[in-house]
């Protein structure tokens, strides 16, 4: 599908973005292992989370789902059954990697695959440590690419030092550890989004988090994990599209209501503040295990900044749209230490640089990020999402300030994480 977008005179709106993708995945994956039933509201009905539901159903988990409401009938840590077919994770890295950990300790055979993008993404980051813990799994390219084949077995606890700050790797190992025969201790780069830790603790799992280590003790009593009913907060990664839209537009005021403000996810807010954006946070509260609030951004000028180091895992999925902010800012922005961008749905260094260049931005790829000159005027053009949801939405935001019309090819990719994106896009322009 091609979507044509054009310059907006003004932007206004106050609305809730859909539920957090990371928490939605975890809400169904973890509750499938619970001893009892859980009700989830605010669930993200995006294609990625629907892949998680479909895979769980293939393993005998009963799940009722209607729009943003989900009921999961937990089967306990040892109640899943062998799927009779390959498990298709679609476009979702989170589904594939968390399931690989979860299935490593289940007593049956499973095969995990996905679409062409997912099958091209690196998996040794999970297969290597899982093998070290005793898992029996393999895949194409010596275990580095899906399809992955898992012959479930007893997982041994032990120590693993995480070489990359990845919540997917951390979560895969913790899920494998749940059915292990000894405690699992993770050290190294353990600081990344921490929804798994928060949720497992809330489900009664004995898990301790310190500055330099996470230790998980496999539950010894069959009442664990408890089911966890929850309301999923709005996704800050989705809200960032509107925060940037408002920040780069001279006549804008947009409020995103009930957005997750977990500090491991708010790097984009910190960067926009450092760039001089006019941001107000109100109504801060806790919902379940997560902090939330309302975020209002008003239009104004931005200046260039540096995005690197510890900030990167706190905003990795927001970099495509932050690049749009940087292209509209005065002065240079440098993104560094972000080689992980190259291992997402597309090589997001390459796709951001090629598509924003077509719109007149002046930016260059580096091995671990990009340098964006800033200050240039964007103009409409025909651009490609390359089937990547975050690239499609970042280009749509650029189109709000570009001169003339922008045509975005493969714009349907937004359904992966934000199925109502185009409705909200129309609303903020018409309000
Ligand atoms: O754990 C998660 O829910 C996610 C972790 C991040 O990936 P990495 O763990 O590969 O950094 C992120 O990019 C992805 O969109 C969701
Ligand atoms: C990288 C992403 O997701 P995943 O790894 O789950 O495919 C994303 O949503 O930007």
TrEMBL record:
Residues 7-423 form the Enolpyruvate transferase domain. InterPro entries: Enolpyruvate_Tfrase_dom, Enolpyruvate_Tfrase_sf, EPSP_synthase, EPSP_synthase_CS, RNA3'P_cycl/enolpyr_Trfase_a/b. Coiled coil: none annotated. It catalyses: 3-phosphoshikimate + phosphoenolpyruvate = 5-O-(1-carboxyvinyl)-3-phosphoshikimate + phosphate. GO terms for cellular component: cytoplasm. The keyword Signal does not apply. It is found in: Cytoplasm. GO terms for molecular function: 3-phosphoshikimate 1-carboxyvinyltransferase activity. This is 3-phosphoshikimate 1-carboxyvinyltransferase. It comes from Herpetosiphon geysericola. The gene is aroA.
């Amino acid at each position: 599908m091609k979507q044509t977008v054009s310059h907006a005179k003004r932007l206004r709106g106050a609305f809730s973005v859909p539920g957090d993708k990371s928490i939605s995945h975890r809400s169904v994956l973890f509750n499938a292992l619970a001893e009892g039933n859980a009700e989830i509201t605010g669930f993200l009905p995006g294609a990625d989370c629907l892949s998680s539901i479909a895979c769980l159903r293939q393993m005998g988990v009963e799940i009722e789902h209607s729009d943003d409401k989900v009921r999961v009938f937990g089967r306990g840590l040892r109640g899943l059954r062998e799927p009779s077919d390959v498990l298709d994770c679609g476009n979702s890295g989170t589904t594939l990697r968390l399931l690989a950990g979860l299935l490593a300790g289940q007593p049956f055979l499973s095969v995990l695959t996905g679409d062409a993008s997912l099958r091209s993404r690196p998996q040794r980051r999970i297969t290597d440590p899982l093998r070290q813990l005793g898992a029996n799994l393999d895949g194409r390219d010596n275990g580095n690419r899906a399809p992955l084949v898992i012959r479930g077995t007893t997982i041994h606890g032990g120590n693993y030092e995480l070489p990359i700050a990845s919540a997917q790797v951390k979560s895969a190992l913790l899920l494998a550890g749940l059915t292990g025969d000894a405690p699992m201790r993770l050290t190294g780069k353990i600081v990344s989004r921490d929804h798994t830790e928060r949720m497992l603790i809330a489900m009664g799992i004995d898990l301790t988090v310190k500055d330099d280590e996470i230790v998980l003790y496999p539950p010894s009593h069959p009442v664990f994990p408890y089911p966890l009913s929850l309301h999923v907060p709005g996704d800050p990664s989705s809200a960032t599209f509107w925060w940037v839209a408002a920040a780069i537009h001279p006549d804008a005021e947009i409020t995103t209501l009930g957005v997750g403000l977990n500090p491991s996810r708010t790097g984009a807010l910190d960067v926009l503040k450092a760039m001089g954006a006019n941001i107000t946070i109100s109504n801060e509260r806790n919902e379940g295990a997560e902090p939330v609030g309302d975020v209002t951004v008003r239009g104004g000028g931005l200046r260039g900044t540096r995005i690197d180091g510890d900030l990167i895992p706190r905003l990795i999925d927001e970099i495509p749209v932050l690049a749009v902010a940087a292209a509209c800012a005065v002065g240079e922005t440098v993104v560094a230490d972000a080689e992980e961008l190259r291992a997402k749905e597309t090589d997001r260094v390459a796709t951001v640089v090629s598509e924003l260049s077509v719109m007149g931005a002046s930016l260059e790829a580096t091995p671990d990020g990009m340098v964006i000159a800033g200050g240039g005027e964007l103009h409409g053009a025909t651009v490609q999402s390359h089937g990547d949801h975050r690239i499609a939405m970042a280009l749509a935001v650029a189109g709000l300030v570009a001169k003339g019309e922008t045509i975005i090819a493969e714009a349907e990719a937004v359904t992966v994480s934000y199925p109502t994106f185009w409705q909200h896009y129309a609303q903020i322009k018409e309000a």
